Amino acid sequence: MSNIPYIVEGIMAYEERNAWAGLIVTVIVMTAYVVVILQQAAGGPLPDVDWWPTMLWTIGAGIAGTILLSIVWGIIAGARDPDGVGKSDERDRDIARMGSRVGQAFTVLAGLGVIVLCAVEAPWFWIAHTMFFGFALSAFIGGIASVIAYRRGLV
User: Fold this and answer.
1) 53-61, long-range: CB < 8 A, 24+ apart
2) Cα angle at 74 between 71 and 76, to 5 degrees?
3) pLDDT tens digits along 126-155
């Protein structure tokens, strides 16, 4: 039995599974995005790449992938523990709030970076990618903070 409250015999809380699903999908889709963009550039200047369709597909794939992984993982968890599969409590809400706050810091930093890039009239490529990677970093770091809070507790 675990010494961490709410984690009994290896069964993960619903919200923690969702945080893990988001982390896994974020790493996969962002890695794929970078690889595709670098392949399209083929050693040429990055701003010349037709990036926006790939970015939109990546965003859609990330959302769909996270939902799909959460559903599949939930079905598997439901087979193991039908009574606790979708339950959340005050601790889950506190951890979700904390993870969101941690992630928001990176969204704010990306927004400030976008303002600076706009002020210096940077190419749209760099402006869009600053915000795009800011959102991805926000989701990733917020998810990491949530998982750590589940494993070590809120301080």
Assistant:
1) 55/128, 55/132, 58/29, 58/30, 58/32, 58/33, 61/29, 61/32
2) 115
3) 999 999 999 999 999 999 999 999 988 886
- SS3 state at 91: helix
For the cut 60, the answer to whether the pLDDT of residue 4 exceeds it is no
Sign of CA dihedral 135, 136, 139, 144: negative
Which two three-digit tokens encode residue 114? Answer: 């976008």
- For 122, the enclosing helix (H) or strand (E) is none
pLDDT tens across 70-125, in order?
A: 999 888 888 887 776 667 788 888 998 999 999 999 999 999 999 999 999 999 99
Q: State yes or no: pLDDT of 68 exceeds 90.
A: yes
Bridge partners (DSSP) of residue 11 are 8
User: What whole-number distance in Å separates Cα of residue 148 and Cα of residue 116?
Assistant: 33
Identity (one letter) of the amino acid at 64? Answer: A
Residue appearing with tokens 């962002």: 30
> Distance between alpha carbon 155 and the CA centroid of its chain, in Å?
23
